[in-house]
Structure formats: C-alpha cells, structure tokens
Amino acid sequence: MNWDDAPADTPDRLVGSAADREDQAVEAALRPKELDEFIGQERVRQQLDLVLKAARQRGATADHVLLSGAPGLGKTTLSMIIAAEMSAPIRITSGPAIQHAGDLAAILSSLTEGEVLFLDEIHRMSRPAEEMLYMAMEDFRVDVIVGKGPGATAIPLELPPFTLVGATTRAGLLPPPLRDRFGFTGHMEFYAPAELERVVHRSAGLLDVAIDTDGAAEIAGRSRGTPRIANRLLRRVRDYAQVRADGAVTRETAARALEVYEVDARGLDRLDRAVLHALLKLFGGGPVGLSTLAVAVGEERETVEEVAEPFLVREGLLARTPRGRVATPAAWSHLGLVPPPQGGGTSQGGPGQTGLFGA
Ligand SMILES: Nc1ncnc2c1ncn2[C@@H]1O[C@H](COP(=O)(O)OP(=O)(O)OP(=O)(O)O)[C@@H](O)[C@H]1O
C-alpha cells in the first residue's frame, strides 16, 4: 500500500485520523504498554519481537526502526513499546520540530546509552538535519560546525549508541540513503474489523464502559480501519449511552449514537457522503473532473481530493481515472441509489463516456 495518498490532517472530523486535543489527552491511558498487548499488525509485531529479543540477548542497543503507515495506526504506541521492551528511556520529537542541524545535534548529544529517539514525521525534517542524521545513525557521531564562512570548523562529537525509531506516513518520500540506514522497516496496515473490535473492547475495559460484542462490532465497522478513530467513536458512543440509555453500549445504542454524529455504517461522514451523492445524483456516477465535483459540494478542491477521496478510493466507492472521478457500483448501493441504465451517463461524461458502467 502506498501511503503517499494517506488522508491529510483532518483534526476537526470525528472520523479524521489525525489526533485532536481530546485524543491527545486520553491516548496515553489507552496505549498498550507491551508487544503482547498490541493488537493486530501480526507481521510487524513478530518481526519486531525478534529484532528486540535478539538485541536483548546480545546486550546490544536495538537496530534503528522505521515505521510507516497512515496516522492513528499505532506508530507512536509501538515506539513506546520498543523502549519499554528494551527497558530504555524514550525521547519524542518530530521532523517539523527539527528545522536546523543544531536542533538535532542538541538532542543527539543529550541522549543516554540505549535511549530510544522517536522521530515522528521524519520525512518532514530539514535537509541539513537529515544529513547530520545519516552519520549519527551509522557511526554514532556528528560533526558540529562551529563558526561561519572560511573560518568554520567541524568538531566531531561521539554519541552513545541509541535506537532511532522513525515514523512516516510517506515512506516513498524518504531519500534512499536515509531509508537504507534503518535495520528494520515495519509497514503498518489498516486494521481488520475483528482487530478493531478487540481494540474497542480493550479500551472500553480501561474506560470502564459496559459494552457487548455487537456494540463493539458496530463501532469497529465504522472506524475506517484505524484504532485512533475506534477509540474516539467509543467515547462519543459512551456519551450517548450515558445520556440517552442506561450507560451500556449495545449494537443499537452504538448505531443510534453514530447516526447522531453522522458517521454511517461504513464509516463515511457527511463530507464523504456529500461527495458521493454529488457524483451519483448530479453527474450520473461520472466521470467528472475534480474541480467540478468540488464546486458541486461547496468545498475546496484540496478538501475533496485529500480529505474525502482517499477513504472513498480505499473503500472501493470511487475511482480516480484519467477522465475524472467515477463512482463504482458499490457507491450506488451504499447510498441506496440505482445506477442509470448502460449508456445512460450524463452529458458531463461526454459521448460514449459512461464511467464504469458503460465500459
Ligand atoms: N494495535 C493497537 N492496539 C490497541 N490500541 C492501539 C493500537 N494501535 C493504536 N492504538 C491506539 O490508537 C491510538 C493512536 O495510536 P498512535 O498515537 O500510536 O498512532 P500513530 O500511528 O502514532 O498516529 P500519528 O501518526 O498520528 O502520530 C492510541 O491511543 C493507541 O492506544
């Protein structure tokens, strides 16, 4: 899976995958602390288990780890688990926070032996910092430049061995020399509904929310494959259950609560549905150009393209084609609409252009 088209930051949406303030406040309490507690991502978990066990047996610092995947899938959580499994402290920072090589030098020179440095959004680090990181990762050494111009001198600085855990939503954007310096790369996938159900159950236990299997399944099915969203929906459902029901979360309570919040059975919210609705009702399922579609829903082109579309594409509801956006048969059935008869596309599609159905 290519994460380069991962959803953009969408902090205000209930189904946005970036962390909002409330998430940040409660996530620490919900994070699994050990590898065995971490749900799903079987392959990454097994591979990482081996990497960490081997390092522990050798009494060495673990290899540098790169974690790639969409926001909210557990990269920060895994980095904390790596530190915990290695009984090492962890320092957390991010690419955008390191704009100068000096910022990075300051962090690196204050690391203790074996410490884990978690660098979120590593693809957004500045170039000079990135180059400094190459040497630090490989030789545990940096050259600190003192002075300017012809009189500038490089003072070598030895670093204690440390483990860098880099996280990125865009592994494809990392320069190969940086990617190659990681001993282990784990690609995080979206979670299966059954895995999310376990996430919901676990979080409900920690938050002291009574929930049955069907209630957890209902929330999981609307969580877009993302634990962060599952936890957020659980909190909104808990509010509803507390105010409008007896506090217990059943399938019915969960469904009614999420209807109030306009998150439908497949996890689409109002924006997603507006895009689909326009595509189907106004343009007969497409093809239609992105700009036209954006005008039809009263949104910016970028919002439609970066916020709504990635999930619609992933869900197989919308296709991006060279001729424009096209609805799939699943989109029609999801909105309970009937596709026009074959060859019955709208004039938007032009003669002979009837989207997927005319092909
Ligand atoms: N495998 C998992 N099992 C249980 N809970 C999980 C799992 N993965 C993530 N979570 C929960 O989802 C929330 C978000 O996870 P986390 O912050 O680690 O995601 P992330 O990938 O680092 O996101 P971002 O890229 O936005 O920083 C956390 O509260 C965490 O408890």
Structural commentary:
- 45% of the residues lie in helices and 12% in strands.
- It has 359 residues and is an alpha/beta fold.
- The protein has three domains: 31-187, 3-Layer(aba) Sandwich (Rossmann fold); 193-260, Helicase, Ruva Protein, domain 3; 270-353, Arc Repressor Mutant, subunit A (Orthogonal Bundle), CATH 1.10.10.10.
- The chain has a five-stranded parallel beta sheet, with helices on one face. A two-stranded antiparallel ribbon has the order 4-5.
- Helix 4 (101-109) links the parallel strand 2 and strand 3.
- Adenosine-5'-triphosphate (ATP) binds at residues 18-19, 27, 30-32, 38-40, 71-77, 120, 199, 227-228, 231.
- One of its GO terms (biological process) is DNA repair.
- It catalyses: ATP + H2O = ADP + phosphate + H(+).
Query: CATH superfamily of the largest domain, called what?
Result: P-loop containing nucleotide triphosphate hydrolases
**Named CATH topology of the largest domain:** Rossmann fold
Total beta-strand segments: 9
CATH architecture of the largest domain: 3-Layer(aba) Sandwich
Strand order of the largest sheet: 2-3-6-1-7
- Helicity level, as a percent range? 40-55%
Low-confidence stretches: 1-9, 344-359
The ligands bound in this entry are: adenosine-5'-triphosphate
How much of the polypeptide forms β-strand, as a percent range? 5-15%
User: Structural class, from secondary structure content?
Assistant: alpha/beta
Largest sheet: 5 strands, parallel
Please give the alpha-carbon distance between the first and last residues: 27 Å
User: Which H/E pattern describes the elements?
Assistant: HHEHEHEHEEEHEHHHHHHHEEHH
The geometry reads as globular
CATH class of the largest domain: Alpha Beta
- Provide the number of structural domains: 3
Mean pLDDT: 88
